[in-house]
Design a protein that fits this description.
Length: 184
């Protein structure tokens, strides 16, 4: 009974993994933490990158964990307006037709058998040789396009904060051409 259960779990695990939903994950790529950072006009204060799991032939997530670009979000310090910091949030969405089938190469084995029959002098001779070669077919690739959303203006004074994609941007101080901030 234990062997049967083990065999079932061993065979079912890849099938269950193949059924994992295709998800998009976003992570902050700029530094975060309680350290006070500074920025000048035009500097990026927060940058997020999104990655989407490659869908497999049955619509689930790739069992090898391969992903494709899904876009991202950038928050840029534009400058100061009086005692307030002005930021610009830009969201980009990337659509693609990439799947595990378009991004996977194929390796096709080709086996050849050679047979030789004959005589050497008066002695009959025969032999057989088998060789295998492989043909590599690269992935066919995919296409993608990016769509930028309309920028969103965000204005914050000293001590104020805003939450973007689950992370908090807090303004510490604002000067005419400088900003002190924290990203948690």
């Amino acid at each position: 009974m234990k062997k049967t259960a083990f065999a079932f779990v061993t065979l079912a695990a890849p099938l269950l993994a193949a059924c994992a939903p295709v998800e998009t994950k976003t992570k902050l790529v700029t530094p975060a933490g309680s350290q006070i950072r500074s920025a000048g006009p035009g500097d990026v204060v927060m940058s997020f990158q999104s990655r989407k799991a490659l869908p497999n032939i049955v619509g689930g997530a790739d069992i090898w964990g391969r992903t494709t670009n899904a876009g991202g979000t950038t928050v840029r310090f534009v400058g100061a307006r009086g005692s307030e910091a002005v930021f610009e949030r830009m969201d980009v969405v990337v659509e693609t037709n990439a799947t595990t089938m378009t991004e996977s190469p194929m390796i096709i084995p080709q086996t050849t058998t050679t047979t030789v029959d004959g005589t050497v002098g008066m002695t009959p001779v025969s032999g057989t040789a088998r060789s295998t070669s492989y043909q590599f077919i690269p992935p066919r690739g995919s296409s993608q396009y990016a769509t930028a959303q309309r920028p969103i203006a965000i204005t914050l004074g000293s001590g104020q904060s805003v939450t973007i994609r689950g992370r908090t941007l807090r303004v510490v101080t604002v000067a005419p051409n400088a900003l002190k901030y924290v990203v948690d």
